[in-house]
Amino acid sequence: MRRLINRIFKHNSSDRQLLLQLEHLLGFTPGNMAYYQLAFMHRSKPEDATSSNERLEFLGDAILGAIIAEYLFKKYPYQPEGYLTELRSRIVRRETMNNVALRMGLNKMVQYNQNDRGLSRSHIFGNALEALIGAVYLDQGFEKTRKFILNQIIRAYIDLDTMESTDTNYKNQLLSWAQRHNSVLTFDTLDEKMDGTRKLFTVGIMMDGNLVAEGTGFNKKEAGQVAAQKALEVLKVKE
């Protein structure tokens, strides 16, 4: 396999570099490189939006959720459904995946419009990680994908002990703080627009009639959590 890939990419240094990066990242030699090239192609880069990683991201997100669910089910045999659901949500949430992707160095591999400075501060790298999972699944099958997620993502970058003990429900933290300080707090939808094939929401947090912070997400709950986290930082609220 390696000799075949070397022959294919010997005239293209950028493709050869991607192959070497993937071998280090995945722990194995990829087969169909087209899947992986597509996984790192953000829709802002190609002229044809159908040549982006969004479909792979959709697939990878579903596979990631299923594998994490199985892992937590076996790891915590005596915990109730609500506990497992909350912990899975913390692992697969976009902030977590984006942080993992940055630590893995995917920000150096994703192809996107770098003139749009807002993109580098968004969740496109976490989205690319999900697309990469989709690519691994199509290229190598379920069991290889399972091993990649558990070994290269969960065990390498996710601290479950810290995640269990940390309250990441920023909205609840903010509401509790506002109640203690007798402040009137509301979460208002400021904007709804299409981002590719999905709707992107912007939620603003109003406190006593003033806009404190705003956040974006692919649903109102996610956008509200992002806004709440920013508001906690603005208000210097400690856990």
Explain this structure.
This protein has 239 residues and is an alpha+beta fold. The chain is built from eleven helices and three strands, in the order H-H-H-H-H-H-H-H-H-H-E-E-E-H. A three-stranded antiparallel beta sheet has the order 1-2-3, with helices on one face. Strand 1 and strand 2 form a beta hairpin. The relative contact order is 0.11.
Please provide a brief summary of the model.
This protein is α+β, with helices and mostly antiparallel strands and 239 residues long. It has helices at 2-9, 13-26, 33-39, 54-75, 81-92, 94-104, 124-140, 142-157, 160-165, 170-180, 220-234; strands spanning 185-195, 198-207, 210-217.
Largest sheet: number of strands, sense, barrel closure: 3 strands, antiparallel
Overall pLDDT confidence? 83
End-to-end Cα distance: 52 Å
**So how many helices?**
11
Number of E strands: 3
Keywords:
58% helix; 11 helices; 239 residues; globular; alpha+beta
Layout of secondary structure:
Blueprint: H1 2-9, H2 13-26, H3 33-39, H4 54-75, H5 81-92, H6 94-104, H7 124-140, H8 142-157, H9 160-165, H10 170-180, E1 185-195, E2 198-207, E3 210-217, H11 220-234
Antiparallel strand pairs: 1-2, 2-3
